[in-house]
Design brief:
single chain, alpha/beta, Rossmann fold, six-stranded parallel sheet, 18 helices, 44% helix, 12% strand
Length: 458
């Protein structure tokens, strides 16, 4: 290999919430003409990687087909019900049980190992959930940057008693959806969440999985990894949020808060139909509940009823996947103010439009931060795990309201929250103030500059 080469290898699971920020970042480096860019992810995302190349190429490195057990989009309905149930701890436990699959992680590890042997990267940029990639970077001594599309505290808070963390004692544990100012009952619940998480790994079922993982790690020559190893061993942690969207604590120096990763806009300049429709409206409610959300027929009917009750005051743009549109009532019975799209060419372009007044979202890390980036107040129907954490902070910071019963998706509840947010100027004012801070953080340009300044690329 030419000693002057300094390849950068991006690695991500195929979920949009993890992949998209890295696509934006890799695209920015390509736009700046940085050479030797590689992107490793699952085969179905090949075209997405291909599209980001501009001045310099971004080579796609396949990690094979999607392994359904590791991809939330392909989980069966029974697993989906478990990980989105109303009990925060049981949902948290179900996610861990479903995703902690050492044998399947090993499949991806081996595929990535072959890519690394070929590319010989000077630096890896890895989504924070891709444990197999973090393991490989540590085992090979390759400097790596961790990409975090969640709140900073999500990866800096200890999830078990006596565990190392960077947030203070009593800080809300990730996935609890608890506020900073807790009642006595909530403080007890917060501590019990950590104790129950530790106890979960002491069961015979999880003990068997941990022993399997231990044997795998020993065979691969991998060290035992502590929960905070991905933070401690990273050269840098890029977090797609800002300090003002989390509860106060001292962020470690290696974590850089760069705000939402947004590409240059307009992202879809040829989309004259949707942009023209948005131009013609005075007030639009944008509904985008994420790629993982699966609605029932009753829930689809509730959303249609929401639009019907808003008719005459607001237009509704609803992104509903093609796979779920068979649940809609007959098209002729839909309210005239409802526009349904199976896919929007650019959610960023939609959120940036001045006629979009509120974002009805599931509260995932990307959607939450992107909504705020464009100064849009939110109504949140939390789906699972981190969504509840974002929702409670949005409520506490005065930029959003959360449905009273997220799992019920009542039309009355949704209309009430939308009407209150739209009718109270402070929601939009505070969202715009935080949006200015998000934009000032620099996003993709700041992240690219930080990466290029790392010693590994000198």
């Amino acid at each position: 290999m030419d000693s002057a080469r300094r390849p950068i290898l991006f690695v991500s699971l195929p979920e949009s919430g993890l992949l998209n920020p890295l696509l934006v970042l890799a695209g920015e480096l390509s736009r700046q003409g940085v050479e030797d860019l590689w992107f490793a992810t699952d085969e179905p995302r090949r075209d997405d990687v291909r599209r980001i190349a501009e001045r310099s190429p971004v080579e796609f490195a396949s990690l094979g087909e999607v392994i359904s057990e590791l991809s939330a989009v392909t989980w069966g309905d029974d697993v989906y019900r478990e990980v989105t149930q109303s009990s925060r701890f049981r949902a948290h436990r179900a996610v861990i049980k479903q995703s902690y699959k050492p044998g399947l992680q090993d499949v991806k590890y081996r595929r990535l190992e072959a890519v690394v042997s070929k590319v010989r990267p000077a630096l890896m940029v890895i989504d924070c959930i891709s444990g197999f990639a973090i393991d490989l970077a540590i085992a090979r001594g390759i400097p790596f940057v961790l990409s975090v599309p969640f709140l900073p505290s999500n990866v800096l808070t200890a999830r078990a008693p006596f565990g190392k963390g960077y947030t203070p004692k009593g800080f809300p544990v990730p996935h609890t959806g608890l506020p900073a100012g807790m009642s006595l009952v909530q403080r007890i619940s917060n501590e019990l969440f950590k104790i129950r998480t530790l106890a979960m790994f002491c069961t015979p079922e999880m003990g068997k999985v941990m022993r399997q993982d231990g044997r795998r790690r020993k065979a691969l020559g991998l060290p035992s990894i502590s929960p905070m190893a991905r933070i401690d061993k990273a050269e840098m942690v890029l977090c797609n949020s800002i300090a003002e969207l989390d509860y106060p604590f001292t962020v470690p120096g290696k974590m850089r808060l760069v705000g939402a990763m947004v590409p240059p806009l307009p992202e879809a300049p040829d989309d004259k139909d949707l942009s023209g429709w948005l131009d013609a409206q005075s007030s639009v409610v944008y509904m985008g509940l994420g790629t993982i959300t699966r609605l029932t027929r009753a829930e689809v009917g509730s959303v249609v009823e929401v639009a019907r009750r808003l008719e005459g005051r607001h237009q509704v743009l609803w992104k509903l996947s093609e796979e779920q549109q068979h649940l809609l009532p007959p098209r002729e019975s839909l309210p005239a103010n409802l526009r349904i799209e199976s896919w929007v060419p650019s959610q960023h372009d939609v959120l940036a439009h001045p006629n979009v007044k509120v974002f009805f979202t599931h509260g995932g890390g990307n959607g939450f931060n992107e909504g705020v980036y464009f100064g849009k107040p939110l109504v949140v129907r939390p789906l699972w795990v981190d969504c509840f954490d974002q929702a409670v902070r949005g409520r506490d910071f005065g930029i959003s309201l959360t449905l009273d019963r997220p799992h019920a998706l009542s039309a009355g509840d949704v209309v009430d929250k939308l009407t209150r947010v739209l009718g109270t100027p402070s929601f939009a004012e505070k969202a715009e103030r935080l949006g200015k801070l998000q934009r000032a953080a620099g996003g993709r340009e700041t992240a690219a500059s930080l990466i290029l300044g790392l010693p590994a690329l000198a």
